[in-house]
From TrEMBL, chain A:
One term of GO molecular function: ATP binding
Keywords (A to Z) from UniProt: ATP-binding, Nucleotide-binding, Nucleus, Transferase, Ubl conjugation pathway
Primary location class: nucleus
Protein's name in the database: SUMO-conjugating enzyme UBC9
Family listed: Belongs to the ubiquitin-conjugating enzyme family.
InterPro entries: Ub_conjugating_enzyme (IPR050113), UBC (IPR000608), UBQ-conjugating_AS (IPR023313), UBQ-conjugating_enzyme/RWD (IPR016135)
Active site, renumbered: C92
From TrEMBL, chain B:
Protein localization: Nucleus
Transit peptide in keyword set: no
Cross-referenced SUPFAM superfamilies: RING/U-box
Gene Ontology cellular component terms for the protein in this record: nucleus; Smc5-Smc6 complex
Top-level taxon in the UniProt lineage: Eukaryota
Protein name: SP-RING-type domain-containing protein
PANTHER family: E3 SUMO-PROTEIN LIGASE NSE2
Entry's transmembrane regions: none
One example of a Gene Ontology biological process annotation: double-strand break repair via homologous recombination
Protein species of origin: Scheffersomyces stipitis (strain ATCC 58785 / CBS 6054 / NBRC 10063 / NRRL Y-11545) (Yeast)
Domain spans labelled SP-RING-type: 183-268
Pathway assignment: Protein modification; protein sumoylation
Pfam families per the UniProt record, alphabetical: zf-Nse (PF11789)
Molecular function as annotated in GO: SUMO ligase activity; ubiquitin-protein transferase activity; zinc ion binding
């Protein structure tokens, strides 16, 4: 069995056994009904006490063939409001960047926790979209309002 | 003639530099040193060989189990050998010191003749005999020869560390090997566990290899997959070292951990490898 498949099966096993509170992550179903371990959907809860609280933000995670040598591609929905998220939804985070801090030993759990951390602590040095970045650096009231509006759209129904 | 008339009251002076005799004794002592040292080294080597042969044999035969007591006895014997070698070093040191000190003292002393006898009788203040010098140096050494000095010596011995690791792993397959404390016998087990899982596949190791550069361990097949995909950095987060095929060596200690771990009757559920510091 390939390294990618072996690893993903183990990631799934470990996630089912134990994962951080409020998160979810599961592989998608292929058209034939079987599980496609290379495509996952997951939910990142906003941390309590932050602008992002009381909502779970959906992400998709695609694992390339060369995973874990290469990092997975992680995306929020298109036009997600955050300074470090590209208009396409792709997340700009150093641990997800092959040229930067990605390492094969980084687990799914560490990835989702890293993304949760990024929500409320954007990195102003790597802007990925105009609106959120501009508001974050110049008009904090506006930024807060937009983030809260977005949170309402992803209110945690559960 | 004076001295001759005194012969009835002849007393040897308290200091008698029998240089010739001393030289012979020292030579004898040195030849014996080397013999003892090589005997001890040979003994140590045979304990080491027996231990590693035994461990390798068990590792190749999955149905066998390592005998804790046997390893412990070998460790104790090996320590005893090192203790003797340490004592021998101390002895050599004492001897050399005594030799130097007698040589210095005798520099200004004329040979002991009937004529010089009175000179000897009158001035004995700074002169010492062979045994005095050896004893005084030995006493000095004894004061400074604390167990910490021996621990330092133990710590510097790679083979001792090897047997000690085996002995520790048999009892604690998931714990890091504690440092040998120099001044304390307490075993300090520092927090974390050693992951018995490959960082690439997250599965338990089967054929673990480690990088001789950064000492991180990987599953052989998977690190080779990683390297052949054009990556050369160590897969462990935060590690900036490059890994190359020729730096990979079989990780015997990890093999041992896996073997001991898998033989445990109750396998404690194993936490997800935490690798982000």
């Amino acid at each position: 069995m390939s390294l990618c498949k072996t690893r993903l099966q183990e990631e799934r096993k470990q996630w089912r056994k134990d994962h951080p509170f409020g998160f979810f992550a599961k592989p998608c179903k292929a058209p034939d009904g079987s599980l496609d371990l290379t495509q996952w959907t997951a939910g990142i809860p906003g941390k309590a006490g932050t602008l992002w609280e009381d909502a779970v933000y959906p992400i998709t995670i695609s694992f390339p063939e060369e995973y874990p040598s290469k990092p997975p591609k992680v995306k929020f929905p298109a036009n997600f409001y955050h300074p470090n998220v590209y208009p396409s939804g792709t997340i700009c985070l150093s641990i997800l960047n092959e040229e930067q801090d990605w390492r094969p030993a980084i687990t799914l759990k560490q990835i989702v926790l890293g993304i949760q951390e990024l929500l409320d602590t954007p990195n102003p040095d790597s802007p990925a979209q105009e609106p959120a970045w501009k508001a974050f650096s110049k008009d904090r009231t506006m930024y807060d309002k937009k983030v809260k509006e977005q949170a309402k759209r992803y209110v945690n129904a559960g | 003639m004076d001295s001759v008339s005194n012969i009835e009251n002849f007393v040897l002076p308290p200091n008698v530099p029998f240089q010739r005799v001393l030289t012979r004794d020292f030579e004898f002592a040195s030849s014996f040193e080397n013999k003892v040292d090589s005997d001890l080294q040979e003994l140590g080597k045979s304990i080491l060989d027996i231990t590693s042969e035994y461990v390798n044999y068990i590792l190749q035969n999955d149905h066998l189990k390592l005998d804790e007591e046997f390893i412990q006895r070998n460790l104790d014997s090996f320590e005893q050998v090192l203790r003797n070698r340490f004592a021998l070093m101390e002895f050599k040191d004492s001897l050399q010191h005594s030799k130097d000190s007698i040589r210095n003292n005798n520099m200004n002393v004329s040979e002991l003749t009937i004529e010089a006898l009175q000179e000897y009788q009158s001035s004995t203040e700074d002169l010492k005999n062979f045994d005095d010098v050896v004893i005084s140096h030995y006493e000095e050494r004894k004061l400074s020869q604390t167990s910490s000095e021996f621990k330092k010596f133990l710590k510097s011995d790679k083979n001792y560390a090897y047997i000690r690791s085996i002995s520790f792993i048999i009892k604690n397959p998931e714990d890091p090997i504690p440092e040998l404390e120099e001044d304390d016998d307490d075993v300090n087990i520092s927090g974390g566990k050693i992951s018995l899982k490959d960082p690439l596949s997250l599965n338990y190791f089967v054929d673990p290899v480690k990088s001789s550069v950064c000492n991180h361990t990987y599953e052989r097949a998977f690190i080779l997959t990683h390297l052949s995909s054009g990556h050369s950095e160590c897969p462990i987060n935060g590690c900036r070292n490059a890994v190359t095929r020729k730096n990979l060596i079989k990780d015997d200690m990890m093999c041992l951990r896996i073997q001991v771990f898998s033989k445990r009757k109750t396998k404690p559920e194993y936490e997800t490898a935490e690798r982000i510091e």
